């Protein structure tokens, strides 16, 4: 299969921990600009798959390519982040004692330390980017509030905004709606769909209502490999998926 139109290309990837195969001959391909939802039971290998993509875990075997031609197994975590892969972990980690706007300024792409970042005169382009991210993350009205005062859901959006400030080509998002209200969950689906217009996104999530809202292709992992892949209707009608995951 040609890699040229892919943002993420994993083929035959395996990794073992103390003899246990957490990822087992995994093949997963994402087209440029695609958003994909990854589902699967606990221990299926979803987190380990993202660890491999971000360079945190080295695969024992297999190919891992980014943007068609970059062999990720040859790069470390910092290089991979710089090349345009952003990752959002489940728990939000924002700078609580800074304003929403300053959180975003501190995350803007490019080398900067805190003092110059907060006190230098912002360029027109930087101001435009911050305004755009505030609009995308529904935080415009709160730009001067302290991050500490945001709701759990808003902190998740702010952290997604901080990733956007790094201008990644691919965003990996781990269980974004865990702990959110229904209204926040629906808003998060809208927000990610908007983001996916301009970059590729991988979302790991257990909330099937949310996955339905996303309306994208779904991959169900099980025991480190792809168990089923297709539309949510297709995957949720797959008896193997019902047996190991949805029917629990
Ligand atoms: N560093 C490690 N050392 C040993 N075992 C590990 C390590 N990382 C993951 N595992 C094991 O690999 C398997 C896959 O774990 P992983 O966290 O990738 O699953 P997951 O699909 O993300 O599950 P969850 O939905 O619970 O987050 C699990 O059995 C886990 O215990």
From TrEMBL:
<dbReference type="InterPro" id="IPR003593">
    <property type="entry name" value="AAA+_ATPase"/>
</dbReference>
<dbReference type="InterPro" id="IPR017781">
    <property type="entry name" value="ABC_transptr_urea_ATP-bd_UrtD"/>
</dbReference>
<dbReference type="InterPro" id="IPR003439">
    <property type="entry name" value="ABC_transporter-like_ATP-bd"/>
</dbReference>
<dbReference type="Pfam" id="PF00005">
    <property type="entry name" value="ABC_tran"/>
</dbReference>
<dbReference type="InterPro" id="IPR027417">
    <property type="entry name" value="P-loop_NTPase"/>
</dbReference>
<keyword id="KW-0067">ATP-binding</keyword>
<dbReference type="GO" id="GO:0005886">
    <property type="term" value="C:plasma membrane"/>
</dbReference>
<dbReference type="GO" id="GO:0005524">
    <property type="term" value="F:ATP binding"/>
</dbReference>
<keyword id="KW-0813">Transport</keyword>
<dbReference type="GO" id="GO:0016887">
    <property type="term" value="F:ATP hydrolysis activity"/>
</dbReference>
<protein>
    <submittedName>
        <fullName>Urea ABC transporter ATP-binding protein UrtD</fullName>
    </submittedName>
</protein>
<dbReference type="InterPro" id="IPR051120">
    <property type="entry name" value="ABC_AA/LPS_Transport"/>
</dbReference>
<keyword id="KW-0547">Nucleotide-binding</keyword>
<feature type="domain" description="ABC transporter">
    <location>
        <begin position="8"/>
        <end position="248"/>
    </location>
</feature>
């Amino acid at each position: 299969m040609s890699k040229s139109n892919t943002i993420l290309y994993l083929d035959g990837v395996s990794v073992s921990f103390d003899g246990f195969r957490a990822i087992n001959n995994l093949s997963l391909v994402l087209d440029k600009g695609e958003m994909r939802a990854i589902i699967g039971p606990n221990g299926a290998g979803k987190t380990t798959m993202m660890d491999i993509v971000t360079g945190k875990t080295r695969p024992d075997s297999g190919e891992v390519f980014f943007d068609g031609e970059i062999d990720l197994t040859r790069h470390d975590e910092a290089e991979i982040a710089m090349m345009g892969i952003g990752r959002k972990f489940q728990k939000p980690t924002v700078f609580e004692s800074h304003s929403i706007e300053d959180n975003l300024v501190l995350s803007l792409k490019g080398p900067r330390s805190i003092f110059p970042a907060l006190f230098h005169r912002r360029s027109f382009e930087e101001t435009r980017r911050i305004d755009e991210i505030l609009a995308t993350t529904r935080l415009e009205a709160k730009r001067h509030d302290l991050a500490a005062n945001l709701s759990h859901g808003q902190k998740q959006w702010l952290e997604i905004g901080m990733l956007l400030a790094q201008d990644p080509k691919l965003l990996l998002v781990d269980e974004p709606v865990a702990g959110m209200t229904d209204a926040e969950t629906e808003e998060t689906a809208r927000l990610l769909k908007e983001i996916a217009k301009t970059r590729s996104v991988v979302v790991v999530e257990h909330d099937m209502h949310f996955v339905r809202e996303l309306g994208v292709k779904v991959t169900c992992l099980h025991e480190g490999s792809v168990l089923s892949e297709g539309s949510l209707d297709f995957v949720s009608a797959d008896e193997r998926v019902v047996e190991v995951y949805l029917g629990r």
